[in-house]
């Protein structure tokens, strides 16, 4: 009994303790109480989650902007030393905003996630030491290794290459005095004038945060709401809505440094410059419907094109040029050269060709090279210097911060093979995650005597070090505002529009119509028209018609009729047709058709044209089936004699989708491509299929023999697209 009584007391004591603990637990945390969960069972899981998360919800519908720690602030302009001065490191608002944005996504790039890269060489045309101390430009024939990465901006790594977008064009020069990066785009201007607005821009164009829709597209309310409220976007927007937003390939687009930089000579003299990469393949673009189809048919179109061109020995080339302007003329052209939304018309500052860049080697491993390459505008070399452009000033911080984020916080990403310079590295940076170097110097500080004072300080006069242009003067009161010299947002979009051909103008208008027709909010649509109307009343009226809205009255303050050279894509012929693609429509069951296809391929291949023979089934001489073929895969299409029955025959085949051969021909014609036929029967079938009579269209070639057709196709490829096939609005100005 005694033992049992003791046991009972211990049980009672434990029961009392557990009961007390239960009461405490209930008071402290109701979720630990089984009865609580039973009572909540009927509320439903979604309701429970909503209740739990309520205290974390943030409603921004009626509040002032605040910092991450609750202090009210404004965040649309960086803090600068004078209106046209440098951005200050003390600007905690900028650093907080851009640093938070830099770390939003890991490890994929927050922007420019979708891309392709290649190795190559830059060769200087001459010794340019009279204008810059940059070593890679210091001698005629001097060669410098490069790695170039092309990309879209808004889409994720899994998005399509042919989405309408600004395209990244980032070039690394592995110079003998350190890595130098030109981190630019295929469009010479940008949407915003101050880097502090970059998170706002990207948040507006990215997929909606509630449903992650749409991917790699700006045809939605938030993007155009931002565009219409931030008029500095108009110039870049017009470029992106033109063919520049949907290039034929990476090889057929130009590249630009966007910002104004400085060239500095050894003795410290400096001039303002703009970087230009001019494609030697010629400029070419897709048309919008073609780009949309390609996104579904072959999302890797641009990446595959670049790879194939290099593998075939036809690596692309660009001529690197600069526009040079005296420092005192930064405001001489009616706009501010520090404004990244402006171009310098070539008539005002001609291009000076510096050298040629050729890409000739594909990466061995995509991740190790293309994905891990980490560009920075801050990768600078002696002879080049920054300007006070507030977008550039912010990028100098943001890119380094972003690369730290992508490298999981480790500071040693420059030691990854693709990022390592060819010149030796000597400094006092030590340790950190991913440290690859074994430093023998045990005195990593400066100044020192125990290591003989090494590494020594390099500057303008000793060690050929980087130095800031001596004549850079910053003298102004601290301001959080853009310079009034940045205020004209509409004259240059109009200059761009005026400089296009009539059909290219129609393409631009159609692109805006497409995008704006997807908008749901009526006020956003009206705001868009208001901004466009400040550029052109004609464009605004033509967009308004498609939206079913009243056309605005002219707002002519910034209207003009000026034009400039070099902005049209289609106003000229291509200098080379090598690597362009021709589809030869044949019949796998007609020996004559296949023989003719073989002859066409032999003749066209002499010019480097890539020819694919299409038939019902694969066999010797047939490279693709009709079931796998599509007009997006070719820059021109030829019908062989003996294949005409595939176009006009009424019987469907189980070997390919109904009407596919004819669809390839019709789509090619509708998208402005050269189409051809060999022989009278094939010619009649072509004319019947596309609905055009012989002689009505120079891009429709019908020849009695292969030689005549080859000549016509080659001429058509140089023209690339026949714009007369595209409708233009009646009464268009």
TrEMBL record:
List UniProt keywords, sorted A-Z: Heme, Hydrogen peroxide, Iron, Metal-binding, Oxidoreductase, Peroxidase, Signal
Known SUPFAM superfamilies for this protein?
Heme-dependent catalase-like (SSF56634)
Q: What does this protein do?
A: Catalyzes the degradation of hydrogen peroxide (H(2)O(2)) generated by peroxisomal oxidases to water and oxygen, thereby protecting cells from the toxic effects of hydrogen peroxide. Occurs in almost all aerobically respiring organisms and serves to protect cells from the toxic effects of hydrogen peroxide.
Q: Which GO terms describe its molecular function?
A: catalase activity
Matches recorded under InterPro entries? Catalase, Catalase_AS, Catalase_clade2, Catalase_clade2_helical, Catalase_core, Catalase_haem_BS, Catalase_immune_responsive, Catalase_large_C
Source organism superkingdom: Eukaryota
Q: Which cofactors, if any, are listed as required?
A: heme
Pfam families annotated for this entry? Catalase (PF00199), Catalase-rel (PF06628), Catalase_C (PF18011)
Its signal peptide is 1-27
Family statement drawn from the similarity comment of this UniProt entry:
Belongs to the catalase family.
EC numbers on record: 1.11.1.6
Q: Which organism is it from?
A: Podospora pseudoanserina
Q: Spell out the PANTHER family in the cross-references.
A: CATALASE (PTHR42821), CATALASE B (PTHR42821:SF3)
- Quote the protein name from its UniProt record: Catalase
Q: Which residues form the Catalase core domain?
A: 66-454
Q: Does the keyword Iron apply?
A: yes
Task: Kindly list any coiled-coil regions of this protein.
Answer: none
Catalysed conversion reaction: 2 H2O2 = O2 + 2 H2O
């Amino acid at each position: 009994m005694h033992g049992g009584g003791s046991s009972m007391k211990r049980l009672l004591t434990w029961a009392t303790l557990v009961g007390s603990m239960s009461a405490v637990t209930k008071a402290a945390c109701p979720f630990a109480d089984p009865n609580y969960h039973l009572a909540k069972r009927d509320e439903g899981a979604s309701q429970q989650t909503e209740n739990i998360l309520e205290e974390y919800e943030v409603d921004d519908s009626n509040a002032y902007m605040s910092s991450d720690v609750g202090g009210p602030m404004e965040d649309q302009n960086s803090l600068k030393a004078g209106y046209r001065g440098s951005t200050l490191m003390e600007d905690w608002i900028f650093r907080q905003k851009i640093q938070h944005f830099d770390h939003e996504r890991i490890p994929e790039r927050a922007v420019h996630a979708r891309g392709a890269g290649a190795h190559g060489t830059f060769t200087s045309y001459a010794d340019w030491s009279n204008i810059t101390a940059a070593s890679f430009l210091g001698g005629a024939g001097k060669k410098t290794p490069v790695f170039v990465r092309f990309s879209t901006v808004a889409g994720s790594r899994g998005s399509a290459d042919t989405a309408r977008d600004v395209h990244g064009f980032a070039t690394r020069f592995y110079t003998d005095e350190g890595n130098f990066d030109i981190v630019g785009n295929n469009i010479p201007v940008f949407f915003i004038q101050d880097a502090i607005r970059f998170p706002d821009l990207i948040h507006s164009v990215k997929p909606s945060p509630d449903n992650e829709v749409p991917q790699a597209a700006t045809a939605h309310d938030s993007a155009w709401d931002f565009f219409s409220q931030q008029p500095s976007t108009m110039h870049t927007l017009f470029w992106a809505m033109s063919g520049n937003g949907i290039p034929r390939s990476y090889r057929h687009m130009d590249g630009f440094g966007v910002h104004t930089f400085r060239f500095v000579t050894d003795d410290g003299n400096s001039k303002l410059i703009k970087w230009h990469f001019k494609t030697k393949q010629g400029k070419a673009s897709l048309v919008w419907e073609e780009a949309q189809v390609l996104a579904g048919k072959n999302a890797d179109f641009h990446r595959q094109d670049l790879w194939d061109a290099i593998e075939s020995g036809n690596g692309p080339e660009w001529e690197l040029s600069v526009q040079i302007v005296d420092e005192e003329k930064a405001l001489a052209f009616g706009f501010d050269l520090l404004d990244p939304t402006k171009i310098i018309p070539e008539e005002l500052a001609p291009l000076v060709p510096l050298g040629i860049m050729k890409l000739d080697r594909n990466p061995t491993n995509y991740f190790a090279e293309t994905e891990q390459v980490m560009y920075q505008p801050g990768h600078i070399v002696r002879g080049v210097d920054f300007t006070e452009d507030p977008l550039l000033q912010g990028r100098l911080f943001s890119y380094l911060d972003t690369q730290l984020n992508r490298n999981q916080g480790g500071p040693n990403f420059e030691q990854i093979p693709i990022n390592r310079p060819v010149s030796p590295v000597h400094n006092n940076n030590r340790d950190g995650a991913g440290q690859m170097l074994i430093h023998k110097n045990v005195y990593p500080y400066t100044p020192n005597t125990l290591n003989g004072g090494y590494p020594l300080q390099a500057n303008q006069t000793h060690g050929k070090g980087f130095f800031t242009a001596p004549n850079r003067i910053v003298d102004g009161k601290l301001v959080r505002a853009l310079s009034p010299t940045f205020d004209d947002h509409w004259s240059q979009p109009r200059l761009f529009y005026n400089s296009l051909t009539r059909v290219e103008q129609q393409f631009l208008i159609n692109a805006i119509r497409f995008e704006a027709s997807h908008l749901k909010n009526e006020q956003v649509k009206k705001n868009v028209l208001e901004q466009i109307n400040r550029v052109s009343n004609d464009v605004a009226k033509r967009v308004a018609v498609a939206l079913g809205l009243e056309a605005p009255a002219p707002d002519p303050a910034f209207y003009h009729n000026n034009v400039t050279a070099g902005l049209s894509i289609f106003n000229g012929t291509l200098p080379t047709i090598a690597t362009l693609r021709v589809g030869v429509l044949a019949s796998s069951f007609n020996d004559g058709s296949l023989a003719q296809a073989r002859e066409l391929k032999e003749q066209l291949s002499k010019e480097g044209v890539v020819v694919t023979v299409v038939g019902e089934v694969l066999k010797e001489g047939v490279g693709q089936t009709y079931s796998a073929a599509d007009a997006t895969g070719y820059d021109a299409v030829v019908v062989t004699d003996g294949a005409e029955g595939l176009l006009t025959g009424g019987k469907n085949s189980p070997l390919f989708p109904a009407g596919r051969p004819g669809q390839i021909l019709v789509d090619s014609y509708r998208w402005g491509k050269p189409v051809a036929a060999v022989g009278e029967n094939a010619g009649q079938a072509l004319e019947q299929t596309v609905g055009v009579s012989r002689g009505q269209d120079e891009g429709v070639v019908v020849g009695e023999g292969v030689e005549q057709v080859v000549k016509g196709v080659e001429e058509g490829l140089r023209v690339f697209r026949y714009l007369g096939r595209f409708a233009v609005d009646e009464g268009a100005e």
